[in-house]
Amino acid sequence: MFDGPDVDAEIVLVGRSNVGKTTLMRELTGHDFASGRRPGVTREPNSYDWNDFAVTDLPGYGFMEGVPEQRQEEIKDGIVEYIERNRGRILLAVHVVDANSFVEVVDRWSERGEVPHDVDLHALLHDLDIPAAVAVNKIDKAGDRDATLDEVAERLGYPPPWRQWSDVVAPTNAKNGSIEPLLEVVRERLKEEKRHDLLKHFS
Length: 203
Fold this sequence. Notes:
Blueprint: E1 9-14, H1 21-29, E2 46-50, E3 53-57, H2 69-86, E4 90-98, H3 102-111, H4 117-127, E5 132-137, H5 145-155, E6 169-171, H6 180-192
Parallel strand pairs: 1-3, 1-4, 4-5, 5-6
Antiparallel strand pairs: 2-3
């Protein structure tokens, strides 16, 4: 079981390994966290908190190259348990995907008759009634930006065009600090929850 911060409200970052969650966490909070090119660097939740509120980066969900399969399953189960246990305080789950590889990975798994990890994870958030944003990261590497965003949105159950889901789908390039679309989604979500006191953290 993963431990979490002692807070009453939280934003969580979820997604596969090596999609840029930790870099995005750094941009959201303004604080450094260990990251690397090797998948699976984050094996435990990383949190940054402001008294009763936190942003938490959860480990990679699903396959991690070089990590034993049993350990991958333990981490995956730990993430599910964490989300289920803390769903009452999760104001928003930011589902981070890699714009450059997401569609290819999802389609490959689907063609094998298997449920892709990202689709499974997004369905979990939906089933638990946890508001979700999709941070389509590394968008600078996408050849046709709008076509890529349409395909990502469609694979997760949001019919294109993606722009009609601008309150959910947020193109980002965390490495270069380009996360304004996600910040806007976060701010709108906090306003919906009447947590205007937290807006100062995402100005």
